[in-house]
Amino acid sequence: MTPSSAPARPLHSIIATAGASLLILAVTLYLVLPIIALFFRTTPELFLASLANPEVTSALLLSLATSVISLIIVILVGTPFAYIHCRNTYPGKVIVDTVIDLPLVLPPAVAGMALLVLYGRAGFIGQYANIFGISIAFTTLAVIMAQIFVASPFYLRQAKSLFDQLDPAYELTARTLGASPARVFATVVVPLTAGGLISGAVMTFGRALGEFGATIMFAGNLPGVTQTMPLAVYVNMAGDFNAGLTISILLVLISFAIMIAVRYYAKTEVPHA
Amino acid sequence: MTERKHHLSIICIVSAFLIMTALLAGCTGTSSEQKVTGAPTGTPVVMYEAVTTPLRVAEVTTAPVTAPATATPKPEYTPADGTVIAYTAASLKGASGKLAEGYAAMYPGRSVVFNLDGTQALTTQVENGAYADVFISASPKYTKQLTSGKYFVDGTVKTLTTNYVIVILPAKNPAGITSLADLAKPGVKIARAASTVPVGIATDAAIGNLASSTYGQAWNDSVNRNTVTYETSEPSVATKVALGEVDAGFVYESTSTAAKTGTYQSVTIPKSDNYLQTYSIAVMSGSGKKSAAKDFENYMLSDAGQQVLLSYGFRPA
Amino acid sequence: MLEVTIQKKLRDFPLDISFSVDDSSILVLMGDNGAGKSTTLNIIAGLVAPDEGMIRFNGSTIFDSGSGIDVPVEQRKIGYVLQRSAVFPHLSVSENIAYGLRARHCDAAVIEERVGHWLDWMNIRELAGVPAAGLSGGQKQRVALARALATGPLLLMLDEPFSGLDNESRRSVREVVRECVADLKIPCIMVTHRLGDARATGDRICTVSRGRITGTGDLAPDQ
Q1: Which of A173, A214, C64, C65 could in theory staple to A112 by disulfide, Cβ–Cβ 3.0 to 4.6 A?
Q2: pLDDT confidence bin for C57, thresholds 50/70/90
Q3: Is A211 a residue whose pLDDT tops 90?
Q4: Do C90 and A192 touch (CB under 8 A)?
Q5: pLDDT in tens, A57-114
């Protein structure tokens, strides 16, 4: 019996492996190093001290509160909207489809400008609200409106995709069993798409949390009222560099949690046709 | 199979090489990750034109036009010196077009690119490695900071121009403001710059002076309560006023002077209470084109440059 | 007894169908793909509206274009098993069977009794708590049937109930269907493309082509 020696790995195979590893390493480092640099620019003491800064805590609370409210509104309004949009054909459906994606390609500052021109007290709609003493621009409401405008496409596109993929047989069967359309939606459609909807919701929350351009244009910058975390970072870049750094780190931590949540929920697949 | 692996290895090597090169360039050069240009603050709707006879409703303290004593220097340059990058306080935005033209006229073949943003933002960028040839600061605070950090070439830090603070109102003056006292009326909406922005520093000082000399602490508190936004650059304040979204805004006189007729009304702040902002210009010690940068500084300090600034409502150095 | 007369302009041809089915009897619809068989079932179920027609069973009219009667889907007492059973994967077997009863707001006691009855009848008592997603094809079909019948429908419709089943499951489904229909004394329409299943289960057959009935006949009982 001739002993078979394992064949020596050809040179080009080694180079291929090395090249591939280098490529993966390079891409990973490029994305991760700036984040790590944030952590190394401060010390735990400075970080904790900044956390006690009232401007930091107010930005944190405001950001979380507005993002949560924006998310809830997007889910409550967007889910039935996406469902009705998917299950029906109506004139102008293609236009609505395109319009939903619009905030994704619009520069946030332009979005903010547009909101200001419409809802500001000199704006086409805002002027009527102003008559009744209702201010929209420069309020926390404006923050929420800006967040909803820029972040809703993330949820709507995901919901649309899920509902389009969902096999209509489930809904039709449920109807024949005696369920009203609303009941079908709540007991069949939503449970079967919940995983994907949650992942869409998490991305929406992340986008709302990070919104800057539209916010500063439409809502302005007032600590405690409209100064969200991203605005606080920018304003504190000069002046209180440590506050800016702390808020940046907080945003990184929250973003990381969001990413993990998305990966977890995105695993569930929709039963499709 | 081996042929595919062969192709893959070539692609891997080339891609890895390109990425490593890009990484190295990014690490050793300017830190582009933290560079924040003026984009987030949005583009103001109103474009400022040079106006020689400003129209005002309230009292006007006219800017005396006295030219500085420097004569126009003879151009000494080498044509292939490239573009000068000038990190410039945002309040020079309106004048930047004419200034670029004037520079090219005095030194044919040259050009300048302005990076306009709040001086506080530009300072942070420079301190974190951003590249600039010239730095124009709207506040002695940041000028001092950068000087002590040795960011400027010795002997090149010069006073460029000055500017007072003024209150502008939308053309229609919806809140019916006729005096500084009216700013404390309930329901009035005021826009100003944040305290880290040079014009914000000036605004805070002027308001403080006005309170202690004339209007009292209660007036000061009311003005603060009426402030609905602290903007991150001077043009942003002007935009909010121009759009009619606020009733009043604290900006530089230059903005008010240079605006197209009828864009704003204004209320002046008495000189005795006002804060005279001093702008400086300096050549960056990290510049790769110091002679071209010095030429640009010379232009800005020359009659030609100063005339442009004066026509945009700035005061002489 | 079921009487159906419907017309509808479809994309490629006009649908013009007319037939009747006696109680305790199974009518098989056969024909090429796209002939209009599934559309006919959908129309009877109320999921699609015909241009004109009349549908009547158990002595009441559920659709009549002439007098404007159009009973909504959820109120037509029809048991409809679609292709590939569409068993709700996120619910257990007994929750699936109970779905229609819950939708009609039945008593908890009634629900328990009916679900139990059908679990036994279909011989799937041991699968009661199992999530429906993990069942085999034959098991899913039985759950779908139980689910459709649990609400006590007055008409049963099956669209390709044998697709994807192995021989043993196919035999048991055939038996179950025949027994149900005989037991409950309701009419039944079944769409299938397999002649063997048709002859083993059905009493009468209609062939459908391009929206029209091209032939009818009796089916001799299988050996």
Answers
A1: A214
A2: confident
A3: yes
A4: yes
A5: 899 999 999 999 999 999 999 999 999 999 998 999 999 999 999 999 999 999 999 9
With respect to residue B223, please indicate whether it lies within any of the assigned structural domains.
yes
Which chain C residues have a beta carbon less than 8 Å from that of A177? 74, 99-100, 103, 147-148, 151
CA dist B242 and A156 (Å) reads 35
Residues B192 and B234 in one domain: yes
Q: Is C80 on the interface with A (CB under 8 A)?
A: yes
Q: What is the pTM of this model?
A: 0.75
In tens, the pLDDT along A129-185 reads 888 888 899 999 999 999 999 999 999 999 999 999 999 899 999 999 999 999 999
Chain A neighbours among B 141-160 (CB < 8 Å)?
142
Q: Is residue C81 part of a domain?
A: yes
DSSP string, A182-215: HHHIIIIIHHHHHHHHHHHHHHHHHHHHH--HHH
> Is residue B58 in some structural domain?
yes
| Strand locations in chain C (E) | 2-9, 14-21, 26-31, 52-57, 60-64, 69-70, 78-81, 155-159, 188-191, 204-209, 212-218
CA closest to B32 among chain A residues: A34
- Cβ-count burial C181-196 (b if 16+ within 10 Å, e if not): beebebbbbbbbeeee
Say what the pLDDT of residue C164 is.
78
Q: Indicate whether B285 and B155 sit together in one domain.
A: yes
Over the stretch B70-103, which tens digit does the pLDDT of each residue have? 444 444 444 455 789 999 999 898 899 999 999 9
Q: Which residues contact B173 (CB under 8 A, 6 or more apart)?
A: B247, B265
User: What is the model's pLDDT at position C58?
Assistant: 82
Q: What pLDDT does residue B17 have?
A: 57
Distance from CA of A249 to the nearest CA of C (A): 40
Residues B100 and B57 in one domain: yes
Whether B80 is in a domain gets the answer yes
Contact C80 A176 (CB under 8 A): yes
**R_g over Cα of chain B:** 23
Number of domains in chain C: 1
Strand order in the sheet with B83-89: B111-117, B83-89, B134-137, B277-283, B158-163
Looking at the partner chain, which of C74, C79, C88 has a beta carbon nearest the beta carbon of A175? C74
Check whether residue B297 and residue B233 sit in a common domain. no
What does R_g of chain A's alpha carbons equal in angstroms? 24
- For residue range A2-14, what is the model confidence (pLDDT) as tens digits? 555 556 678 888 9
For residue C34, give how far its alpha carbon lies from the nearest alpha carbon of chain A (Å).
Answer: 17
Give me the CATH number covering residue B242: 3.40.190.10
Query: What is the average per-residue pLDDT within B187-202?
Result: 92
Contact C89 A188 (CB under 8 A): no
Q: Which residues in chain A touch residue C71, judged by CB atoms under 8 angstroms apart? A: none
Chains B, A in contact: 3+ Cβ pairs under 8 A?
yes
Listed by number, the residues of chain B in 71-100 with a beta carbon closer than 8 Å to a beta carbon of chain A are none
Confidence of residue C194 (pLDDT cuts 50, 70, 90): confident
Subunits touching A (CB < 8 Å, at least 3 pairs)? Answer: B, C
Inter-residue contact A166 to A215 (CB < 8 Å):
no
Please spell the DSSP secondary structure of B52-72, one letter per residue.
SS---SS---PPP----SPPP
**Cβ separation A238–B123 shorter than 8 A:** yes
**Which of A130, A143, A221 is the best residue to mutate to test the B interface, defined by the most B CB atoms within 10 Å of its own CB?**
A221
Tell me if B134 is assigned to some domain. yes
Regarding whether B291 and B214 lie in a shared domain, the answer is: no
CB C52 within 8 A of CB C65: yes
Work out the minimum CA distance from B4 to partner chain A, whole angstroms. Answer: 11
From chain B, the residues in CB contact with A109 under 8 A are 39-43
Nearest chain C residue to A172 by CA distance is C47
Domain A64-225+253-265 has CATH 1.10.3720.10: yes
